[in-house]
Specification:
Shape: globular
Strand content: 15-25%
Structural class: alpha/beta
CATH architecture of the largest domain: 4-Layer Sandwich
Oligomer: single chain
Radius of gyration: 25 Å
Mean pLDDT: 94
Strand order of the largest sheet: 3-2-4-1-10-9-11-15
Distance between the termini: 12 Å
CATH class of the largest domain: Alpha Beta
Number of strands: 27
CATH topology of the largest domain: Glutamine Phosphoribosylpyrophosphate, subunit 1, domain 1
Bound molecules: 5-amino-5-deoxy-1-O-phosphono-D-mannitol
């Protein structure tokens, strides 16, 4: 979603804004712009498309000034044109926005009736006019900003510059905003990664907060305009974390970082020395009769894998639903239900709203999140951390396996607490968890082989992914990964469902990726594979050595993963589906890290 950066500094900021915006590219965007304040007033440069287009504009028309804001826009209202790109100006203010102003139509009609002229189709421009009108009426910049905020309905993160008073202001309502306390400069950013090059000392605004930043001071106010203090934290996101290193893409780097990310995440739950699994004290699996998982996209599929594991190892029923549907179904909730949001960013609007709704129902809530300062982390009763580190590629990889790692550890903890796993079985399960990083290293070592197989997908119009049990959920994730970065149509199916419809799609041009480890349902999945082979389908099978041997002569290609216990097989098989999608997209020349139309953190509903 949109990225925001603001700087009130002692030196020209345009170049720094551009560098900062580049660090926000990962969020997904389709136009960009900056505005600064000079002695002549506000200066603005914008361009549709990539930041390189904006840089070209700046080469022709530089933008001096030591106070400025920058923005990467992911279009919601109005096409991604230069005119709709942020910043938006009105009189003495320039403004950038992340989120959606739900009452912008009413406000626009009102403002137009008062003679205000709009240049864009965005919902954002009304805010600039509201502030400017309040300035016209004689209010101070802070009063004008506060008054305008009171007129807005919806979600927003805002950064505004005031030309005459040389102030930078920001506001947060549902869309995160971070204040950076630099040396003789103040920074505003939509996330800590944007602020990291300037300072590591940050304050996170709470919902309803707004702030006034001079070059040397930061003042934060709550929705009522009362001064509030927010704790100063040190961000871990160092500048180096946002570098690709020797990898071609962030996605490739993040696939390779998985053994470490898994290991870090497991360490938060598993005490290897004591053979113990620790969960937050407030989480009593004996008091939980059911888990309701709510999530979107890849996080949803992590939850779907966990549903099978909780059933098998902890006899604990799990319902899972995409967050965007869950809330509007007014689902009946039973006492004893633990509501668990899963999210890399902790900011996904639908998941956050569903979590809040569960809270209003009096349910205990947990948030399994990678960003530990996120809205969900703060909203939930229990925060369950993953330690993937910042994930920059839009396609989620290491965040997914970190989620699976944490969930698998919780499954074992639940199994033990509920008396389903004996002490011996618990210790065995812990040993399996601890094997995961090493087995993932082995799986990733097959990258060259995966790259060779990716050639077989290049000309496909459509690819089907199949599996059973937890591997069916992984099939959905595999299909999502392929379609989002390579733009090849792909669908995941429970293997047994194939003959109830999708098999009609099978012919010699439709590759089928079969996730079929040699487990207790191997023969069933293999029957489905043979049904596909009988219809000339090309089968790429992901399995261990034994499974691949049994499938010889039937499949077109095999991708080997290390043999593993069913508790951890989903984790061990994941790098293969990621690498297959990655190399297919790369060979097609796609923009792997920033696929078209996608945003990293979806902060609008
Ligand atoms: O930040 P979240 O985990 O809540 O994000 C959820 C989805 O938007 C995300 O997983 C999305 O599906 C990814 N692009 C998948 O690779």
């Amino acid at each position: 979603m949109c990225g925001i950066l603001g700087l009130n500094s002692h030196h020209d900021v345009a170049e720094h804004l551009i560098e900062g915006l580049k660090r926000l590219e990962y969020r997904g965007y389709d136009s960009a712009g900056i505005a600064t304040v000079t002695d002549e007033g506000l200066q603005r440069r914008r361009a549709s498309g990539k930041i390189s287009n904006l840089e070209a504009v700046l080469r022709d028309r530089p933008c001096p000034g030591s106070l400025g804001i920058g923005h990467t826009r992911w279009a919601t209202h109005g096409a991604p044109t230069e005119t709709n790109a942020h910043p938006h100006l009105s009189g003495r203010v320039a403004l950038v926005h992340n989120g959606i102003i739900e009452n912008y139509r009413e406000l626009k009609t009102e403002l137009e009736s008062q003679g205000r002229v709009f240049e864009s189709e965005t919902d954002t421009e009304v805010i600039a006019h509201l502030i400017d009108m309040a300035l016209d009426a004689g209010h101070s910049p802070a009063e004008a900003f506060h008054q305008a905020l009171g007129r807005l309905t919806g979600a927003f993160g805002l950064a505004v510059i005031f030309a005459e008073d040389r102030l930078l202001m920001g506001a947060r309502q549902g869309s995160p905003l971070v204040v950076g306390l630099g040396e003789n400069e103040m920074v505003l950013g939509s996330d800590a990664i944007a602020v990291a090059p300037f300072t590591r000392r940050v304050m996170y605004l709470e919902d309803g907060d707004w702030c006034v930043l001079s070059q040397s001071d930061a003042h934060i106010f709550d929705a009522q305009g009362v001064t509030v203090q927010r704790p100063v934290k040190t961000v871990a996101a160092s500048a180096a974390l946002a570098e690709k290193g020797n990898y071609r893409h962030f996605m490739q780097k993040e696939i390779h970082e998985q053994p470490e990310a898994i290991s870090r995440t497991l360490s938060a739950y598993v005490n290897a020395a004591r053979g113990d699994i620790a969960v937050p004290e407030a989480l009593d699996f004996n008091a939980v009769s059911r888990i309701q998982i709510i999530a979107c996209g890849t996080a949803y599929y992590a939850g779907a894998v966990a549903r099978d594991l909780f059933a098998r190892y902890a006899h604990l029923p799990v319902d899972i639903e995409v967050a965007s549907e869950f809330r509007y179904r007014t689902p009946p909730m039973t006492p004893g239900t633990l509501s668990m949001a899963i999210s890399q960013s902790g900011e996904t609007a639908d998941t956050l709203a569903a979590l809040k709704w569960c809270k209003t129902q009096g349910l205990q809530t947990a948030a399994l999140v990678n960003v530990h300062e996120s809205s969900m982390a703060r909203e939930a009763d229990i925060m369950l951390p993953t330690h993937a580190g910042p994930e920059i590629g839009v396609a989620s990889t290491k965040a997914f396996t970190a989620q699976l790692s944490a969930l698998s550890a919780l499954v074992v903890a639940a199994g033990r607490a509920r008396g389903v796993l004996s002490e011996a079985q618990t210790q065995e399960a812990i040993q399996h968890l601890l094997e995961v990083p090493r087995l993932c290293v082995e799986a990733i070592e097959c990258e060259t082989q995966t790259e060779a197989i990716a050639h077989q997908l290049l000309d496909a119009q459509s690819v089907l992914y199949i599996g059973r049990g937890a591997m069916a959920s992984l099939a959905y994730e595999g299909a999502l990964k392929l379609k989002e970065i390579s733009y090849i149509h792909a669908e995941g199916y429970a293997a047994g469902e194939l003959k109830h419809g999708p098999i009609a799609l099978v012919d010699e041009h439709t590759p089928i990726v079969a996730l079929a480890p040699s487990d207790e349902v191997f023969e069933k999945t293999f029957s489905n594979i043979q049904e596909v082979a009988a219809r000339s389908g090309k089968i790429i099978m992901i399995s261990d050595a034994e499974g691949l041997k049994r499938a010889e002569g039937v499949i077109t290609a095999g991708l080997e993963i290390p043999a593993s216990d069913p508790l951890i097989t989903p984790l061990v098989a994941t790098p293969s589906i990621q690498m297959l999608a990655y190399h297919t997209a790369r060979l097609k020349g796609a923009d792997v890290d920033q696929p078209r139309n996608l945003a990293k953190s979806v902060t609008v509903e």
